[in-house]
Write a structure and sequence with these properties.
Its EC number is 1.8.4.11. It contains six helices and eight strands; from the N terminus they run E-H-E-H-E-H-E-E-E-H-E-E-H-H. It has 192 residues and is of the alpha+beta class. Strands 7-6-1-3-2-8 form a six-stranded mixed beta sheet, with helices on one face. A two-stranded antiparallel sheet has the order 4-5. A hairpin with a 2-residue loop joins strand 4 and strand 5.
C-alpha cells in the first residue's frame, strides 16, 4: 500500500475514531494538497477525483473534461486541533471561486471549485461560508461565487506519482492564487 510522503500513513486510510474528513476542489490539486498537509491538525491528505459520473477514472480520462470529475483533495483532520470552519477559510482564501470551469490558466470542468459535505453540519457551514464569501467578494467587485457544494459521493484516488507531488518535486507547478479577499475567521480563532 502506498504511504503518504510526509505523514508515513497508508493512503486510503479511514479517518481514525474522533477525526473528520473534508474534500475540496480548488483547481490543480498539487498545490491544494500541500496547503492542507502543512496545517496543524491535518492527519492525512490525498489527491483524487470526485463529483463526476465515470467510475474509477484515470487521470488521462479526467483531464479531457468529459468525466464530470473535479481534481480534489481529501483531508482527514483532528477537529480538536483544526476546525472545519478553519479549513473553509483556507479554501476560500487560496483560490478564486468565481471562475466557473477554470482556475487561472487551467481550463476545464476538472478545475472547478467544489466542496463535498460529509455531514449536515459540514453542508450548513459550507453554505453559510459560501454566502458570506460571495458577499465579501461582491463588495470588492468580483463576480458571483460558482463553488459547487455536493453531498458525499465516491472519491477516486489519483495516481501514486501525483500524491504529495510538490514534496517530491519542490519546483513543480502550483496554480494556487487567491483573490486577496479575506474570508471570515472562525469564532474559535478570533479568541487566539
Amino acid at each position: 500500500m502506498t504511504q503518504h510522503a510526509i505523514f508515513n500513513r497508508p493512503l486510503g486510510s479511514d479517518a481514525p475514531h474522533g477525526f473528520d474528513q473534508a474534500l475540496f476542489g480548488m483547481g490543480c490539486y498539487w498545490g491544494v494538497e500541500r496547503l492542507f498537509w502543512q496545517q496543524t491538525g491535518v492527519w492525512l491528505t490525498e489527491v483524487g477525483f470526485a463529483g463526476g459520473t465515470t467510475p474509477d477514472p484515470t487521470y488521462d480520462q479526467v483531464k479531457t473534461g468529459q468525466t464530470g470529475h473535479a481534481e480534489v483533495v481529501r483531508v482527514i483532520f483532528d477537529s480538536s486541533l483544526i476546525s472545519y470552519e478553519h479549513l473553509l477559510q483556507l479554501f476560500w482564501e487560496n483560490h478564486d471561486p468565481t471562475q466557473g470551469e477554470r482556475q487561472g490558466n487551467d481550463h476545464g470542468s476538472q478545475y472547478r471549485s467544489l466542496i463535498m459535505a460529509f455531514t449536515n453540519s459540514q453542508r450548513a457551514a459550507a453554505q453559510a461560508s459560501r454566502t458570506d464569501y460571495d458577499n465579501r467578494l461582491a463588495v470588492r467587485g468580483f463576480g458571483k461565487v460558482t463553488t459547487e457544494i455536493i453531498d458525499e459521493s465516491p472519491f477516486w484516488r489519483g495516481p501514486d506519482d501525483h500524491q504529495q507531488y510538490l514534496e517530491k518535486n519542490p519546483d513543480g507547478y502550483c496554480g494556487l492564487k487567491g483573490t486577496g479577499v479575506q474570508a471570515s475567521m472562525p469564532i474559535a480563532d478570533q479568541n487566539t
